[in-house]
Each structure stands twice: as C-alpha cells, then as structure tokens.
Amino acid sequence: MSLLVQSSSSRLGRTRPEDAVASPRGTRRLAWRGLSILLDRRTLRANLLLLALVLAASLAYLCLGEQILSPADVLAALQGTGDDLSTFVVDALRLPRLGAALATGAAFALAGCLMQTLAANRLATPGIIGIDNGATAFAVASVVGLGVGLAPPAMALAGAATATALTFGLALGGGTQGYRFIVAGIGVGAVFGALTNLLLARVAIDVANAAYPWTVGSLSARPAGAVWTLAVGLAIGLPVAMALGRSLSLMGFSESVARSLGTRLGRRRAQVLSTSVVLTGLAVAVAGPVGMVGLLGPELARHLASKRSVPVLASALSGALIMVLADLAGRLMLSPLEIPVGIVTAVVGGPWLLWILIRPRSHGVA
Amino acid sequence: MNVAACSLEARELTLAHDRTPVVVDLDVRLPAGQVTAIVGPNGCGKSTLLAGLARLHSPQSGHVLLDGNDIVRLPARELARRLALLPQEARAPEGLTVAELIGFGRQPHQSWLRQWSAEDRRVVDEALAAADLHALADRPLESLSGGQRQRAWIAMIIAQQTSLLLLDEPTSALDLGHQLEVFELVRHLADEGRTLAMVLHDLPIACRYADHLVAMREGRVVAAGPPGEVVTRELVRELYGVDCVLMHDPQSGAPILTGLRRIR
Asked: Where would I find the ABC transporter domain in this sequence (chain B) (predicted)?
C-alpha cells in the first residue's frame, strides 16, 4: 500500500507514465487505490509557513513579558526541569493564556471565513453582523448577576444564536447575499452593544470596571472551563469546516450554478452558519468580542493561500497568529499596564475595514 | 464522447413567483438529440420554465419527468449527473482559471475521497477540446473575452457529462461573432447526441440554430415544432405584436423575418 505522489510540475521536464493521472496545475494528487485527494501546493506552503509563524510567536509569547525568560528557560519549564520562578511564570501564567489566545484566534478567524463565504462578502464577519455583540450582551448579563444562572459559554452561545436569528429575521427576503443582511446585522450589533452598556450601567461601579476589559475583548479574565469548551468546539468545528471545503468553494458561484452542480445548498448553508455561530459564541465566552480577528485572519489567509479553494485551515492558523501577536503587543506596550487584545486588534483592523469599504469593487467576494 | 439520448418533459407544470403563476399548466417535451429553442417576449416565463425543468424552481403543481421519472424524487447529485444548467449571468469565484472552472463541472462525479480521477482528467481535456479552449486553459476567467468566457462556462457543463444541457440566454451579452462561436458549439454538442434546450429572445437566431421551437406567451406554449413549420406571420404577431414578411434562408431553409413593423 504505497502512497503514490504525483506532481503536475513540468519544470523538471520529467516524462509521465502514460497511465498516471496528471493533477490540475499547482496541485498534488495523493492517490491510493480508487481514492484520491488533491492538495493545493500554494495552500500547503501557506499552511506550513503560518504554522511555523504560530510556533515562533508562541515561543516569543512565553518568553516575553514583565519577567523576561530565555527560550532555553521556557523549554526547560515546559519539560518540567526549569527553576521555580520560570516554571510558575510559564505553566501558571503564560501557557494557559497562550492556549486561550490560540484557540480564540483560530475560532474567530474560522468563524469569520465561514460567514464571509456564506454571504459572499468580505464584510460579513460575525463581528460586523452583530453576533459577537449578541454573545457578549448575554454573557455580561450572566456575569453581572441578572439572576440568569447559565455558564458564560452557554449564555454566549444563546446570545450568538439570538443575534443571528434577529439578523436573519430582519434581512428576510434578502437572503444572506447582499447588503441588506449586513446592514441588518450592524443594527442588531448596535442594539446588543447598547444593551451591554445598559447592563453595566445598572451595576456597582467596581463590578462594571471588572467587566470592562472583557467587554472590549481581553484574555485576562477567562471564565474557568470556557477555554476547554472552546477547545472541544474547535476540535469538532475545524474538521467539519474542512470537510465542507468543496461546498464552500461552490458558494462562491451563483446560487443556480452551485445547485445545478448537485450541491444541497440549503443544508450546507445551515451547517456553515451553525459552525460559524457556535465557534463565535464559544470564543466570545473566553475573550469577549475580538471581532476584528474574524476579518484580519481570513484576509491574511486569502493573501497567502491559493484562490482555488476557501482557505479554511489557513484562516484558523492566521487567526491564532494574529491573536497571539496582538495579545503579546497588548501585554508589552504599556507594561506593567495591559492593553486589552480587543483594542489592539481594533487599532490594526479599523484601517483595514476602511480599506475594504473604500477600495475599488471587483467581481466575486466584494 | 458518447451519451445516451435522454428525454425531458413537463406535464401540466405550473410555476409561480410568490403565488403569481408565471408558467401555467404547461406541457412541453424536449426531443432527444435535438436543439430546442424556447422563445417568447420578455416576461413570458421562458427562463422560469428552464429553471423549473432543472429543478431550481419547485412546481406549484404538475411534474417534470426525466426519462419518465419525476425529478423531484431524484437525489441532487444524480440529477446533476444527468442534467446540466447554465444560468444567465453565471458568477464564479474570483481568480479561477479556465481549467479550474471546467474542473468544477466534475463536482457531481467526485467525493471527498475521490477528488481527482483519471476520468476527471480525461473529461476536462475533452471539454477543453470541444470548446476549443486548450490554448486558454491556464488563463484567469476574468481575462477572457465575452465569447471565450461563455465557451468556458459551456465547457464546464460539458464536463458534467450529462446528456441534457439547458442554457439560459447563452448569447445575450455577446456580439455577432461571439454568438456564432457559442451556437456552433451548441450544434456540435447536439450532433454528438446530446439533448439541448436554450432560452433565446432572438427569434431569427432561434430559427437558424434550433431543430425544435417552443414559443411561449404569458406562461403558456402557443406553438411547438420545427421552426420551418411553426413560425408564421401570425405567430410573430401573436408573440411580439410585430408584423413581418416571412422568407426562407436560401442556404438553410430557416425562416427569416423582414419588413418588421410594430402593430399598435
């Protein structure tokens, strides 16, 4: 059972055996018996590059801070052979927070990529169409003690689902493709944002102050258990999204083309939407609304990966990278004060959003 | 490429947009191995009929039968292996090359664990050849002329390997030369045994390239048959409110309309 790897590259001037199956240009075909998988070389390279960057950024994340450790100290601490101080800093302080940054970044960006593909619009990320804010409002409601007793992940999920339902309801008739959907979402997001502020205004100032970094997006106040719930969500959501890859590519076609190619579009859309909403809700439960990662992650992924398919894995890796770097910057810039990661990503993402809005329009994903 | 002849017919088909019937109690049959042109004035329901024949529009009542089976009961992929539709103004993701677009036509024949087979490769090659696109295979779709792009889309549905092809206004945005490019390809596909139907708004062009004409008005079929038999002065008047002199093309025998005058 040998795994046959064929390359479509003709640069080396190799002659192919007659019976070999040439794969489309720029892809590698992995074949075994009657089964075959196509790997896009550019996407493969992008994923490897992003993975290397994520690892490097993670190491930097563990090394840098108020207490600066050498990479050797960090590796020793990770292996359980470090001194007490570095073991405490790495294992108790930075590693859990790094895990949260990686998971939330991947989840936000993956959710963003899925929603953009569904709506065929780069603006249609969960952060922009109000899902983040819905999740936040519900989660804050539970934190400030409105007497609703659900755990933050469950509350955030309920909020994300409610905001999505409202956005769909308001955009009724327009479907998910088109500006009506986005405008409805922006409105829903504004209402939930106001609701969050209203909730915070009703409680004692110290409770509101404690909740503040979380409502703008921060990794410093992570509810216990929420990170694990998110990790489980990602462990399910990422493979689901990758399995949906071919259907995702078809969503870039006009609806009638996708349907006449045999896609059960309604079912696929429901799967894409629910994956996106669940990932958003779970990520908000950990870090609050860091919606910009949902815009920046897929953007970076699309830039690096091939245009042939929707860069699902590359989006997740890009999101993790951006989140780790943004939180690292937030921790270091005004040390010992911390800038919430949501503010760092907003400062970077704001100009990017403006560019998307004002750049010359072209066909496809607007 | 050999394909088995295949029949598609609508029986007492009613299609509605938001409860307003657009196609009413309509019976139509696409003759196997021939090119059918569906013609009629704007808003007569011809595009809706095509969408109904391809199951993109569910019937309010009546049936569409593919080889005698109601298409409502066919699984989506199975239907896509037997019937292909090219909608008007089809849109593709940005940055696709011609060969990649055509590869998407293989979608109904592929699965997650069977993403690219020798058969896929062969069929895409044949589709490139049929549409005369080998030289443009690696060019991005956006860089092609209108006629080339339309041929690429048709090549995509050729790669779907269906015996039935439905085209909605395949030449509406093309100039004369590019229109001929597309119609010659359509004829070539029918000569290979496929059944084709296209919605056209241009009656003379329909007469020139179709074997079978279906003339529609207000959601109903007013005439159906070979263009030489069904196209009459009265039909043109009924369809378009236009008076004309009818002649026959000395080369093809197809009807030619001249001396057109709108009737008030």
From this structure: 8-243
